[in-house]
Amino acid sequence: MPDNPFFEEKLAQRYEQWYEVSEGRRADLLEKELLEQLLDGFSGVQSLLEIGCGTGHFTRYFAKFTLERSEGLLPSVVGLDISPAMLKEAIRRNADREISYLIGNALHLPFSDASFDVVAFITTLEFIDNPQQALKEAGRVARRGVLLGVLNAYSLMGIARRLESIFKPTIYNKAHFYSVGELARLVRKSLSNRNNNLFWRTTLFPKLVPLKGVAVPFGGFIGMRVLFKSGVEMIPLT
Questions:
Q1: pLDDT at 7
Q2: Which of 18, 47, 65, 167 could covalently link to 76 via disulfide, CB atoms 3.0 to 4.6 Å apart?
Q3: Domain assignment present for 55
Q4: Of 204 and 68, which is predicted with more confidence?
């Protein structure tokens, strides 16, 4: 993302507007359905950190999700981002003040070890220069696991966005899109010191393809759950 405060402020203002158009509403619904499926696999999440929270779009969803399943306990949800403009918009939209927002760098998280049940990256890992270090840091501050939502390099949507960035400036000019296999290898390399199980699904297929949340590696959005020290047998990554 360009290091331009004016560009970032305009981007922050437009980011939420995209979710108000038909394409954005559809993407939002499908992505959150998949994230809910993955989050339920952690069981009883009481604290969550979203790294690269941007305007807080998914952070607000995580706060609602954890509150609905908190069983009377007050959950703790934190959004962290390196962009002051994005955080300004996130704070403005945080009407109930139920979320804490902090400025910070994914490569050097300002938290002690095992501070959160889950650490999430939602369409963030693609824009981090050193994703392996970011995942190591996430593994350090997470007690139970890491949640990933990334754009799929092998989807029609991913290919279209990469082609578009060749011909004109977009936020995807410096993005690195992942395949399921590449993401899994990165996770295993970065979190090799943690006993973990990987579970993935993809969603956001073309409208004419009636698939969502399935083990087919071509959906526009990859969701992956990295569960630490789980006693529950998970479907293995293939």
A1: 57
A2: 47
A3: yes
A4: 204
First to last CA, the chain: 33
Tokens representing 199 are: 């579970």
Enter the tokens of residue 82: 């390196």
DSSP character string of 127-153: G-S-HHHHHHHHHHHEEEEEEEEEEBT
Count of domains for the chain? 1
Q: What is the dihedral of CA 138, 55, 172, 83, to 10 degrees?
A: -70
Residue 217 lies in a domain: yes
Pair of tokens at residue 86: 């994005």
Strands 47-51 and 221-228: unpaired
Q: Which of 212, 166, 111 is nearest to 100 (CA)?
A: 111
Whether 229 and 191 have beta carbons less than 8 Å apart is answered as: no
Distance, CA of 18 to CA of 135 (rounded, Å)? 28
Residue type, 190: S
Closest CA to 62 of 84, 77, 42: 77
**Domain of 67?**
5-228
- The model carries a pTM of 0.90
The pair of three-digit structure tokens given for residue 31, joined into one six-digit string? 């992505």
- 92-100 mean pLDDT: 84
CB 191 within 8 Å of CB 139 = yes
Kindly give the residue spans of alpha helices, DSSP state H, lying in the chain.
5-18, 22-40, 57-68, 84-93, 131-141, 156-167, 180-190
Task: Characterize the bridge pairing of strands 116-122 and 221-228.
Answer: unpaired
